[in-house]
Every structure is written in C-alpha cells, then in structure tokens.
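Sat 14:20. Reprocessing the chain from the morning session after the first attempt stalled halfway. Input below, unchanged.
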Amino acid sequence: MSDAPEADLPAPEPAAALKKTPPGPKGAAGRARGRRGKARDAGKPRVVVLLPNAGRPLFPGAMAPFSISDKAAVQAAVAEHDALLGVVQTVDPEAESVKSLADLYPVGVCARIVKSLDEEGEEEGEEGGGLLIRGLTDRRGGEGPEAPFGLVLKGRHRIRVKRLVHTEPYLLAEVAYPAEVLDPEDTETRALALALTGQIKRLVKRSPVFAKDVSVLTPPVPAEEAGRLADMAAVLTSAARERMQEILSAFDVKDRLGRAIRLVKEELRLVGLQRRITKGIEEKVSRQQHDFFLREQLKAIKKELGLESDPKTLEINRFLERMAQLKCPEEVTRVVNEEIDKLRLIEPASPEFNVSRSYLDWLTGLPWGVEDRETLDLKKARRILDQDHHGLDDIKERIVEYLAVHKLKGGSLRGSILCLVGPPGVGKTSMGRSIARTLGRKFFRFSLGGMRDEAEIKGHRRTYVGAMPGKIIQALKRVGTANPVIMLDEIDKLASSYQGDPSSALLEVLDPEQNSQFLDHYLDVRFDLRDVFFIATANVVDTIPRALLDRMEVIRLAGYTEQEKVIIGRRFLLPKQLAEHGIGTGQLTVTTAGLKAIATGWAREAGVRRLEQQIARVCRKVATRLATEGDAFVPVRIAGPDDLKDFLGEPRFREEALSRKSRAGIAVGLAWTRMGGATLEVEAIAIPGKKSGFKQTGQLGAVMVESAGIAYSYVASRVGDFGIPADFFDSRLVHLHVPAGATPKDGPSAGATMACAILSLATGKPLRRKVGMTGELTLTGRILSVGGIQEKVIAARRQGLKEVILPTGNEKDLKELPDEVRRGLKFHLVDHFDQLVPLVLPRGR
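Finished this time. Tokens:
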C-alpha cells in the first residue's frame, strides 16, 4: 500500500544491496526478464511492478511523494525495470493487500522514481539520466518489519492493467498503453480547452498556491496539450479520489475536458465559500481585537490623566466608601471584606461578578447604625394627631403614652408593635402616616393582602436567579434609616401555599424578644429591628393566627358616628374635594344638614370612604355645570336630602320603619354589619296542626342557627315559669325569621332577641315598642357580652328607639361611648334572661 509521506523516512539501502537481492523466483524472473526485454518500447515496458495506491491518483506529468513500505517491489523496479513503477488505485482505500485484479482500478499510471528521501531529509536524484539511490536496507538490522521510506514519483503514461503475473513477493503485472482519442481539428475540443484554461486561472487567482505550476498556461493551448491540461486541472482540485479516478480513466480527451471543467467549477464554489467563512472570522476577530485595543488605550489614557480606574476598582472603592460612613457590626464588616476580596478575583464579564456586586450593594446600602432623631414634644404630637384625624381618641392617647415613656427613658424604648383593628375606611392607614409624622420618623407601607410566599418576608437565598431580600430589608434600604415606622397593611388577609406561610415568617419580625437578631435569607447576616415601630392593620382579628396576634397590642377603631362623619366631612373631605375639582368655596356650599343627609342616605358604612366618594360625585356634577354654563353659573347650595337627588339620585339606604302596631312574636334586635350598625325585627309564628318542631330562615350562619336553637330550647324548657300553655310547643311548628333574607347573617349576639320573640309568641303578649336589645343567650339563661356596641347604639338612635338593653359585661363599652351617642337613650344592663323579661313584658308573665 502507498500514501503521501507524513514524516522523515529512513535512508535507502546501498546500491550493492539492490544488486545482490534476487528480484523474485529464479525461473519466473528469468522468463519475465526475457519477455520485458523484447516488449520494452521507448520506456513503455509491457510488464511492470505495481504499486497499489490508497490515496489520490497520480497523473501523467505530475510529481508526488509516496511513503513506501514494500522494499522488494522498489528494488525490483530499480534493478530490472529501469526505475519504472505502475501506480494503480485500490478500490477499497482501507484494504491491506491486493489479491486479484478486482481489488484494483483497471487504469493507472506508469511512473518513474525521481528522488529518494533519507531519514535526515536529504535527497538523491537523477544525474545524467542515472538514478542514484543510496540503499534501501533496514538500518535497524536483523529480522523484523520493514521501515517505510520516501520516494518521489513522476507520472509518465496511462496504463491499463491486463493481468497479474504474480503477487508475491511483490505485484507484477502485464499492462497496455491505450492511445488517447483526440481530434486536433475539433472546434468543440478547442473550446473546452479554452474554457478550462479560464476556469483554472480563476481558481489560481483565488487560491494562488498553484500559481507557479500553471504560470505556463498562455492561451491558446495547443490541441495536443488538451489532455495534459485536463490532468493538471484535476490535480489542482480537492475532489474525491473516485472523481479523480474517473478523469484518469477517460482516454477520450473531450470527455476528460468536460469532467475536468465540472471539477474546477465545484472547486471554485468551495473556495468561494471558504473565503467567505474565513473573511467573516477574520472580520470578527479583527473587530474584537480593535475594540480590545481601543479599550486598553482608553484605560491607559484615563489612568494617565487620573480620571478614573477600571470599573471593578470603581465598584470596590464605592463599597469601601460606604462602609467608612456606616457603623456596621463586626460580623457585617467581616462578610463585606470577604466579599470584596472575592470581587477582586472575578472578571467583570463573568455572571458571578454581578451576583457579588448586587450582594455588596445590599449589604452596604442598609442603614447600619443610622437613625432619625425623634420629636418628643407631647403637645405638638397631640396637635398633629388632632389635625390629621377627628375622633380615634384611643389610638391618639396610646401614641402620646408611647412618646411620654420614650422621653422618660432617654430614647431607649424599643419593641412597640400595634395592631389597628376596625372596619374599612375608618382611617387606619392614614393614622400610620400621622404617627410617623408625629414621631419625626420615615414611613413605609406595604400590603400583606394575598401574600403567600415566605420569601416576601425573609428574602430568597442567593443561589436562585433574581434573588433579592424580603420586604422588611427593602423597606429599610428605601427609607435609609434603622428606626422607621413600617405599616403592615391587611395583616388579616395573609395566605399560605406550598411556597410557605408568611404569617410564620412574621413571628420573628413582630416579636420584640427575637427581632433584634432578624436574619434575612438573602443577606445571611443579622439586622436589629428593635428600633422599628411596626403598625399592623386588620378589619377583623378572627383570621389572624393566634401566635401572631399575641405579639401585637390590639387597638380597636370603632366606626364613626353620624356627628363625627359630619365633622370629618366639613373639616377634611369637602375642602379636599373642592380643591381637587377646581371649585371655589362660594360656588358650592354644603350645610351640616346636607352632610348629614349624605351620611345617612348614601354613606352609612362605618368609615368615611364612601362619604368622600359621594362628596366627590356632587363636586363632579357641579364642576360640569360650572364648565358648561360659565358666567351664567348659579352657586349651588345643598341643605338637605331634597337638594341631593339631582346629584346623587335616590338614597341608597332607607330606614325600614318598625311595625306601627305591636303584635306578639316580634322583637327588635341590634346588629353589627360591615356597613355599620342596624336594627332587625325578629319575627316568629306558630303553625298549629303541624308536627311540633322549630324552623329558622333568613340566611343565618352556623353560629346564629345555634343561637336560635338555644333560644327555642330555653323558652320551651321554662313553659311553666313564663305562663305558656303546656301543650304549646307539642302541637305547633315554630318558625323564626330574621328579615333581609338576601343578606347573610351570623354571630351569637341575637340570642336574647330571638328568645324574646319566641316568648312573646308563646305567651301571646306583644313586646314593648321602642325597645332594642342585644346579647348572647346560653342554655342556662345567662346574657353574655357582645361586640360592636357603638355601632348598635348609633343604629338605635337612628331608628328612634328610646331604650336599649345591653349585657352587663358591656358596661365598659357603654362608658366609652361619646356623649352625643348616648344622649336621649335609656340603657338597661342585664346578665340573665329573667332580668330581661320584665323590661320587655312589663305587665308580668
């Protein structure tokens, strides 16, 4: 087998060795020499030594190096065949030996050995027509495999292998020399030669490595040279060995020229694609090198002028300057220094650089040891609270107490956590802002409503992409102080999911004994939250986890009375809306009666948000008139309900008048709703002839259904005590209904009212009119305290009741009611149903 050499080859053996070594078997060799002597014709022997070639074909007139391992074949060619070899392609380039003609292509080249290469790369060549070969002996000596050596062969004539004479110890074959098919006068042949010459010149221009080999091509090419031109073209291409063998096997010159043109065109396309790829790579590399050099020059210029250093140094210097201005704990200082050392080793282009820089930005951006100076003037604080809010005396008093203790202890009071509980719109959030202004602290508010991820409180771990600290740390960085007022709004609306329970994360935040060591997952260093004044807000406390509620001081904000709503509307809401709508004070006048009409007919909820919305509606209507009429505008004055119909339509709330005629089975109860207090007439009837039992309707909740059952059982158990016929409950179905059936109702506070309605039905005696009541009833007749006393009393006054019956346990709530709420009402305190009966049935049992 043969192929192009890849390394230096051993020196050939001495010429003496060639002569002493027999070329082959004695008899066969002698007969072969006789035949060759007769058949040899001007360098065209009929029997030649074959050299199987697994690489690219050798063409006539071309020179190529070969790596030879078959020493016997070369020795025979030199000694017996005038240094001529037959180079023939193997069909399978991976074949290790040739056994028959089927393993070889039929057409090859007769080539002469031109040069031999020794180990040191020295060359021996032709001198005066003689071939000088220093020897092909294996210099390692002894038995063993032959080492490859190098030869340079030059192709002479095309040959066709007719048969193999023998295969051992080398290939010896009988060959023929077919003539080329060429018509020198054929114009098509000349045209193909001209076309191929042009294609070769284009190829050489794009790939000048072969420029020297084809420099002799000057059109027109003689017709006799057309075949050689096609061979040269095939050698210049990088076509596959099979394609090149097709050209070698083509004895028709015209066919050979056509095949060569196709190969050269394919090579041109390949060279063009290669040039485009190379050019693109070079441009990209050149552009990157250009930008790199410019950046390096810019750095050097800025460094020389002292303008700035590299971005990494700037970032590190910025962090060091921040640290110098802060009073960080020792742990934080150590972590920051370690992270800065790490940042110095990271390249700015690395993603890890941005992660480390963000972490340092948060660590050095927090207000370590930075606190606002508080205002401890109690009179000024009270004045600010009164300016911002009317009423809410409980919370105002609590803030003043906090400031007083803070002042006496020299500013060392810590761990104050308030929870403002009340209906929507009563001013819980705005009270938080007023508290911050009163204390002279920064204020930050964020809502907990719907929050279901624990990481929102305690932060994400830095292993996650896009990780950041929790809301608490974000708030501290935003306000830039370690002692702000942070409002946790809607704490009763926290949720939980597979991502964690935020309420559990708040346990550490809102515990004065633990929040001095608050650990955010992102920072991974502790921050002292004892100086933060936390204020939470909630509408109800039922949905707040007990462990979390226990950590807060609950202050309840009751709904506003009508009088308070009128005052708030006149002092705060009406001036604000007039300014926002561009209306002058003389263009719209709303009297106290007008504000009261809005509060009772259109905004009856506990807070004042709806009241402000209705005032804004009136202002929009007036602003529309003012813009439309211009100078013809007539000032608007609203003095009562009739003046509001043109602006607000019919009232949304109408007080359901109590039954004018007293009848048995009806009792007036007082209830609390999200819209404030309300009065309910509880009705009961008895259906005779039906199976005995008890039925309730009116969208009652589970607790209220239980209260109704308790009331029925209690009255039925004391038939004799109350003068009820003995068979009343045995022969009748009692049906109890609470009006406003479309409105869901729940709670235990209607127990006493429902018992009075059933008692009135069973005795057949109507209850006293103008008397309202509330209280939870037990199976033993005890009356327990309930909530929402202020709202219920306000509803009683609005309905025109004269007397109100309350549980004795609510005496403290009664004392806290404003005088304007209590005025005109008579209150009775009871702790047992027996005390209640004489108040509603004065004529006895």
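DSSP finds 27 helices and 28 strands in the chain.
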